Task: structure prediction
Amino acid sequence: MTAQSFCYRHRPDLKPVRTETAREDLYKELALLPAADQQSIATAWTTFSSAPASQRRLILQGLLTTCCTSQLSFLANSIEPLLRVDFTAILPTEVCVKIFSYLDAQSLCSACQVSRTWKAIADDDILWHRMCQQHIDKKCHKCGWGLPLLQKQVEEASPAPKRADRKPWKQVYSERLVVERNWRKHRHTTRKLQQPEGALCLQYCDAQNILITGSTEGTATVWDLETGKVLRVLKGHSRSIQALQFDDTKLVTGSMDHTLKIWNYHTGQCIRTLEGHSDGVVHLHFDSRILASGSVDGTVKIWNFQTGQCYALTGHTDKVTHTQIYQHNKVVSSSADGTIRLWNLDTRSCSHVFQGHMGPVQVAIPGCLQQDAVIMSASLDRTIRIWSMETGKCIRTLLGHTDGVTALAYDKLRLVSGSILGTVKLWDVASGLPMYSLEEGDESAKSITSVKLSDAKVVSASHRGEIAIYDFSKAPSS
Result:
């Protein structure tokens, strides 16, 4: 629905309203006639205006029967604009706001150009608040568009500012629309950081403005995400760090030295070392209660932060390449044995095995897609697959990489993947087609070891230590 489509038929109990200019023109034309004719015409108008509604209709019907074709054409052309009325002039403001709520964002902006009254209604904060609720951090079911949450800005605004200091919702929508258009049109700035050793894993936080990487030399490096400067280097592992994750207070690293370490990354202090795997730790994931780790020894271990207890989930026949906790009581794991497993932590058993990849599965990420619980997986067989968590079936295969897919990240709006030959691709999950490549790979390129995705950035790391930051909040200067 567009702004131009809004017109209300004139209510039958209201008199047609001519503009002052039209009235003046009419009386000027009447003044040109002889006095007798002016009097008879004025008498006819007075008779009609004083008659009751039923008689007015009868008078009009009689006049129409006496009109010729040219006169009827004149009537048709004259009546049509009179039947149009600006509904904002006769309806309560609350009703007008409700009508405007059915417009999309583009039509609301068009409505602002109609008149000052329309602009005041179309800029109503309630309308744009609803528009933000409909689009931000989700795909609108009406238009298919989604806008980034821009978590950093949300957290910077906390605690909530005073009403007078808060941004209008239209401005909030506009800022996010700029970022979303940058995503769609492949507009971003690119920065490269170089770690002397190979970078095997990474995580970043826009709110804290930090990036942490794990290296082949067993160190974890804390970077200032904005300046690219190294804040500190955490040393303690004797072999490469394959996995890491951090929150506001702690960092957990997993290493090929068979251990996991918990750090205060703000100070660089190692708080605790977790020992239990019989081989290198390849991946880890934690929430507020537990930590799940996957190892070359083929097991998934669950560590309880509160009780300190640990137990193993067994079933994979090769190294576990990825683990992720889902809904607090489930864990999804992938393995070089080509399978994905869904574990029930209440029963400590495997509830489903997903089979279909023709090579080692590098990543398996649980989540939601169009309200359905799914698992996104990437494999060295060059494919990305989407699995139904309910049925265990592969519901879509994404083809586009010409080499093995080694890294994967996705959110509610988009998906990004990295490959052995250094390609980083952005995908349209709805169509299953690649949108474009952020980085093109070749035979001499660096293998992508990790990719991470946020509302406005993609960050990738390679085994050669190159860290690429693609920032869609900033369009490149021309």
Observations:
- The chain has a mean pLDDT of 87.
- Residues 322 and 334 are 5 Å apart (CA to CA).
- DSSP finds ten helices and 30 strands in the chain.
- Residues 186-471 form a domain with the Methylamine Dehydrogenase; Chain H fold (CATH 2.130.10.10).
